[in-house]
Design goal:
By secondary structure, the chain is an alpha+beta fold. It has 7 helices and 14 strands. A 4-stranded antiparallel β-sheet has the order 1-2-3-6, covered by helices on one side. It has a 3-stranded antiparallel β-sheet with strand order 7-8-9. The chain has a 3-stranded antiparallel β-sheet with strand order 13-12-14. The longest helix is centred in the N-terminal third of the chain and has 17 residues. The termini are far apart. GO terms for molecular function: endonuclease activity; hydrolase activity, acting on ester bonds.
């Protein structure tokens, strides 16, 4: 009897030691139920998604574990949640923001303050407008660098005049950017008495 009692006690201690490696790994980790998935999944303020221990629809016991996220084409971390046999995909940063960050102005988007979309700690996230999110930090500069095409300016005799870094830069000097783009794309032959071509593109004439 005592032997069995000691064995049970020893097993209980081992169970307690092993059990919540996921829950007690970091002292400052806070957990909250994911809205609509109460009792099934929790999200932490550090961006971890926990699947709670439970019995599934077939009566099988499913132990508690951290869900492994995966990335979409833009690098954002995603996680799949299951309820009543229905699987849905969520962005991890949105789960964190909805659980831990107040949104009194009902802003629609979430910004990563350090511009690292994989850093989903609550302290790195903020609710914001689409405009704020688009213009935040180096996003605008990076977008311009990625999408801009150099433009070559010629006179009507096809003599080279100037190379411009982009149609936007031409527009800063009083030319209508749309007209310059139309010329570069072959929709019109000239604009403002000049021929405009994207660098590396053959003439449309």
């Amino acid at each position: 009897m005592c032997s069995n009692s000691r064995r049970i006690s020893r097993n209980a201690r081992l169970t307690i030691k092993r059990r919540p490696t996921v829950m007690n790994k970091a002292i400052n980790v806070l957990w909250k139920d994911i809205l609509g998935y109460e009792g099934l999944y929790q999200i932490s303020n550090t961006g971890l998604v926990l699947s709670k221990s439970r019995f599934d629809r077939l009566g099988r016991y499913v132990s508690e574990k951290i869900r492994k996220p995966y990335s979409d084409k833009d690098g954002y971390l995603l996680v799949n949640l299951n309820k009543d046999g229905v699987k849905k995909t969520f962005k991890v940063h949105r789960l964190v923001a909805e659980a831990f960050i107040p949104n009194p102005h009902n802003y629609p988007q979430i910004n990563h303050k350090d511009e690292n979309v994989k850093n989903n700690e609550a302290s790195n996230l903020e609710w914001c407008t689409a405009k704020y999110n688009c213009n935040y930090g180096g996003h605008t500069a990076k977008q311009i660098l990625t999408t801009s095409k150099p433009v070559l300016q010629f006179d009507l005799h096809n003599h080279f005049v100037k190379r411009w870094p982009s149609t936007a830069e031409v527009g800063r000097y009083g030319f209508n950017q749309g007209n310059i783009s139309s010329c570069c794309n072959g929709r019109q032959k000239t604009a403002y008495g000049f021929v405009w071509k994207y660098e590396g593109r053959k003439s449309h004439e």
